[in-house]
Design a protein that fits this description.
Elements: E1 19-25, E2 46-51, H1 55-64, E3 68-74, E4 78-79, E5 84-85, H2 88-91, H3 103-107, E6 123-132, E7 142-148, E8 161-165, E9 179-182, E10 196-202, E11 205-207, E12 214-216, H4 218-224, E13 231-238, E14 251-257, H5 261-272, H6 274-279, E15 288-295, H7 304-313, E16 318-324, H8 338-344, H9 346-355, E17 359-365, H10 369-383, H11 388-397, E18 401-405
Helix pairs in contact: 8-10, 9-10
Length: 406
């Protein structure tokens, strides 16, 4: 264990800085470490308490010393009388300070509605609107649907989902089971009257691997063809993984493919839409929202006009980055996918997640993008001597890494 003073005056800045505890292995004795007291051991973990404003310097120093960072966590257990770092065992006996931006803490006192309506007793709403989102020349069909929920008690938060029960029976003659869809509207609904809920639905269509026959998704086809005025069976809401932190100063990085934009539309409308801001005087977003959106063609950019209007109106708070696979190329000359955009901005994203405890990552859409995102950030983390998987686990534990893929 190292005393804080061994790191060049860290002890004197404890009261003025946010402190993080680094667990490091593999440090070797060399010219950069031989003057440290106590001396470097050849095995085992070493712990450093590092102020927020010196994290980048410390990463470089650890790398020069041949070390590898295996974990980083907020340093809440400090012996103020001696100015020394508390060991892991001792730290467990102290009461940790609560972080105001923690996802768990942020929603601990909030009313999170869950399963107000269940499959055996769904709410029956009505379709108020069913509009195409894909422009002419685009691929497939994606619909924005608005349902009237004024006749019931359905409440929800941004980032939650609802279930839809399509009519009819399945191939076994049993009633169709519900399908979950991410909610695309804020808690107040698109009309900001607390009477609607919206979905963003792509009609599932694929070729049967054996027969070559075109197969259409049961529920998605039902919704995409739903007529205005038709009844619809709704369950839920469900989900706590994708909820937004209540802190207005957070930095939110959203990575989406296709209809994975749904929860992010809800976030952005809550953050920036004038009517929403008027309806939420206790929530006025002042942080950064960055959407990295993967789509096949420009015609498939869902909610394009509104997204770009928000970007123009709030250039300091909203950043919009497209990955258009069939129209843009990555540096290798292949198609530009979302993971290529993440790799392109990896240094900036890494610095954001690593140094800013108010940063959150949200991933929604096709499951296949996760590996590419991890690979891009893992390569960047390695440059700083950090194991990405270990660091990612610390982000998840802190409630800062949120994933909803399918």
């Amino acid at each position: 264990m190292y005393k804080l003073s061994a790191m060049g005056g860290i002890g004197s800045s404890l009261s003025a800085s946010r402190i993080f505890l680094y667990e490091v292995v593999g440090l070797r004795q060399n010219s950069a470490t031989e003057g440290m007291n106590p001396s470097i051991r050849r095995s085992g973990s070493v712990f450093f308490a590092v102020p927020y404003d010196r994290m980048n310097d410390m990463m470089r120093r650890i790398t020069r010393m041949g070390g590898k960072i295996v974990s980083i966590q907020p340093f809440n257990a400090v012996d103020s009388s001696s100015g020394s770092a508390v060991s892991g065992a001792a730290a467990q006996t102290k009461q940790p300070q609560k972080e105001s931006n923690s996802m768990t803490q942020a929603k601990a006192k909030a009313d999170i509605p869950v399963n107000i309506y269940r499959p055996n007793a769904p709410f029956v709403g009505k379709c108020l609107s069913n509009e195409e989102l894909v422009d002419k020349g685009g691929i497939g069909t994606v619909r924005h649907l608005i349902f009237d929920i004024s006749g019931g008690d359905l409440r929800y938060l941004e980032g939650q989902s609802i279930g839809i029960i399509p009519p009819g029976v399945d191939k076994n003659g049993k009633p169709e089971k519900l399908r979950l869809y991410s909610i695309a509207s804020t808690r107040h609904g698109d009309r900001v009257d607390d009477k609607t809920v919206s979905l963003c639905v792509r009609q599932l269509e694929y070729k049967h691997p054996e027969t070559g026959e075109t197969v259409y998704g049961v529920c998605s086809t039902y919704l995409c063809n739903l007529e205005v005025g038709a009844d619809v069976k709704i369950t839920g809401p469900t989900g706590k993984e994708m909820l937004l932190p209540e802190d207005e100063g957070t930095k939110i990085v959203m990575m989406a493919t296709g209809t994975g934009i749904a929860p992010f539309r809800a976030y952005l409308w809550r953050m920036f839409k004038d009517a929403e801001k008027a309806a939420n005087p206790d929530y006025q977003f002042k942080g950064l929202a960055w959407l990295i959106f993967g789509i096949p063609m420009t015609a498939n950019i869902l909610y394009k006009q509104e997204l770009e209007e928000l970007q123009q109106k709030y250039p300091d708070n909203f950043r919009l980055t497209y990955a258009i696979s069939r129209e843009q190329q990555n540096p290798q000359g292949g198609r530009m996918y979302i993971q290529d955009r993440v790799a392109e901005h990896a240094a900036e994203l890494w610095n954001l997640f690593y140094t800013d405890e108010k940063s959150h990552a949200y991933i929604c859409g096709l499951k296949g993008m996760e590996d590419g995102i991890d690979a891009a950030l893992s390569a960047e983390a390695a440059k700083h001597g950090v194991d990405w998987k270990e660091f990612q686990r610390s982000l998840k534990k802190a409630g800062r890494w949120h994933v909803e893929t399918y």
